[in-house]
Amino acid sequence: MSATGWTILCDFDGTVSVEDVIDSLLDRFGRPGWEQLERDWRAGRIGSGACMRGQVALLDMSRDELDAHLDDLSIDHGFARFVEVTRERGLPLRIVSDGLDHAIGHLLRRQGLDDLPVAANRLFPATPPQRWQLASPYGAPGCTSGTCKCACAEAASAGGTRKVLLIGDGASDFCVADCVDFVFAKHRLIEHCRAAGIPYAPITGFDDALALLPALLDGSLAESHVVPLPAPLPA
Question: b/e for 14-44, b at 16 or more Cβ within 10 A?
């Protein structure tokens, strides 16, 4: 399949950004209660969308404090070059994130990449005494995430006429990893793909992703990195 037959969906927090942005904000500006919401989400008692809305409501920071904090965060040093190559090859790339649009835009702008299309939660000022609130314009009925990455993958596939590459790192990517054609996986997503038999290649960052891209496009990577499903037990 030619390069133009692929499209790329890329997670942001912990994938493009070195740090998890929302975790760093909660550690610095979160009022008591955000840790319990995190535990409830990890235990499966609430979805990530409800967790994020509750945690954002507990952020006690001004706009200036928010932006100053974001100025101290960084993105993967190889990401800008990866974007450049995808554009040269005619590969559409979209950020799909359960994180914050303002933070994503701020970090991308510093790299001159704020023209990348982004699907993420919208952060905006709240009615006092709360400082901030969240809207989820990319949510979907029946999905408990703020951003339904599975719906984004379905749209990106253009009715099955395009193959979809996911680049991600964690729990927010588990569901959509089942809906795409191949995964470049970091961190916890590696084990999920391995356990679920999802075709993937492990990466540590975008230098690795760039090195793997030609083999993905010519088909040799998918052939050599498919993780076989476990053999069925004898009847």
Answer: bbbbeebbbbbbbeebbeeebeebbeebeee
